[in-house]
Amino acid sequence: MGRTIDTVTFDPSYYPAAVVSCMVFLYLYKYTSPNLSSKFAPKYTSLTEVEQIDWNTRFNSTIHATFVSCMCVYSLIYDEDISKEPIWADSPMVRTSCAIVVGYMTCDILIMTIHYKKIGEAFYFFHHGASMYAYFYVMTYGVLPYFANFRLMAEFSTPFVNQRWFLDKLKYSKTSKIFMLNGLAMTITFFFVRIAVMPTYWKRVYSVIGTESFKRLGHISLVLVITCFILDSINLFWFYKMCQGVKRVLKIYAKKNMELMNNHVSIEKEE
Known about the structure:
Elements: H1 15-40, H2 49-78, H3 80-84, H4 92-114, H5 116-119, H6 122-141, H7 145-152, H8 158-169, H9 177-195, H10 198-208, H11 212-215, H12 221-270
Helix pairs in contact: 1-2, 1-4, 2-4, 2-7, 2-8, 4-6, 4-7, 6-12, 8-9, 9-12
């Protein structure tokens, strides 16, 4: 008989990685981001206190997303066990990734709690709580490595989302080339890593439901279904908001081009 959630040993050996992750991101937020940002983006110093707090949290978010998503791609390519046994394969790489995520989100929650009146949003507490609940089980018990790794690859879109915010605060025009290109990359990446993959993910979930391995999960099976359903609902909401933003930018861009064309026609007539 295979392992069950009741017989799997409680394993806190990845907790130190989560603690180190939290401390590192707190340091990045407090010291690294302000120092580097003021040096390479002078306009950072002219931002309001709230904007600087938000900037520093997004700096953390970008570092975290880039690092973790690369780890996930490595696991997907080289860790064949998680594809063969998506529920019970013990993957140190995936568990480490989850520990880093838990540490990062703990740091983010601490920052949002301290500055709740300035940047706190209940929505993000809910999102982080749902994510940490799921990754806690992966980190602690080594279950669901394939699905955890699959979900974390969604972080590929995060740097582009943050970059859009940075460009906006640096006063780049929404119709500038760099703003438009980043927006295009953000929307395409978000769609492919968070929206388009939903059928593939849920097809794999459906393929394991009812199997012996799935039954041995016990109550943790709820993590696989309910938590991920909540996160996908949030992703759909974000994508809707993103599409609305793209629509607004395209309208501005079209209006700007129309005005340029009209001015050009007027000049030709005068000549």
